Amino acid sequence: MSAATIASPASAADNASAVVRMRDVKFRWPGARGFGLQIDSFTLPARAKVLLVGPSGTGKSTVLSLLCGIVAPSSGTLEVMGTDLTRLSHSARDRFRVEHFGIIFQMFNLLPYGSVLDNVMLPLSFSSVRARRASQGGTVEAEARRLLDSLGLDAHQFANHSTAALSVGQQQRVAAARALIGAPEIIVADEPTSALDRNRQLAFLDLLFAEADKAGAAVIMVSHEEELGKRFDQVVRLDEICRAQRGSAAA
Ligand SMILES: Nc1ncnc2c1ncn2[C@@H]1O[C@H](COP(=O)(O)OP(=O)(O)OP(=O)(O)O)[C@@H](O)[C@H]1O
Q1: Could you tell me the keywords of this UniProt record (predicted)?
Q2: Tell me, what's the ipTM?
Q3: CATH of domain 46-73+86-244
Q4: Residues with CB under 6 A from ligand 1
């Protein structure tokens, strides 16, 4: 296997300010025949936009789950913002995640009975740091509305709508605003554009990146569509950074 390190053009400087560093990480989903993977080295520089690509079922979402502490490696080092997540308890990882990560899930995971605004402001209930940042320019509601408008969903019209009544594209904007509110340092996005046509995909990425830049956030996005890579600083193929293992207890 080749061990590849994600690095932007100014590699030395970026490495010094990397937001994620993974080294010799091993993980296996439970069960004797569970899928496992091993990541030798992976570095996400601060403020970088990185696209992680690979065929379906090869472990892209699993890498994202490891990276943001939803699951824990069995061995190795996983450093995020200078904190080794492998040393944190499950609940400490949960607190750490909401503070430092904005996550756009593949199916968006919006609260179906909450309003658009309820959904966008949800992370602020769990992170006082993000709540403080979100209120810097006024109120947190004003910031939620600003993000929705900026991402292409008219807040005046939709703020109090139930998210269950929104189109997929509209839900995607709500999920993105929820990830961005309070300026977490890392935005993780799992195939958020797969339901859109190419023009809408690219337009959405432009809006997402403009807000991520404003917040100073790095973005790591997973997709099986390598052509989206032209919008990113770096495209990384999953098999460049990790090997998958099935059915043995090696990992
Ligand atoms: N929650 C889970 N429990 C057990 N095994 C899982 C779980 N999630 C994923 N897996 C296993 O991990 C393998 C990799 O899945 P993963 O979702 O990471 O791949 P992917 O590359 O993101 O796929 P896709 O592009 O289809 O979303 C799957 O084949 C499955 O066997």
Answers
A1: ATP-binding, Nucleotide-binding, Transport
A2: 0.97
A3: 3.40.50.300
A4: 29, 34-35, 54, 56-62, 224
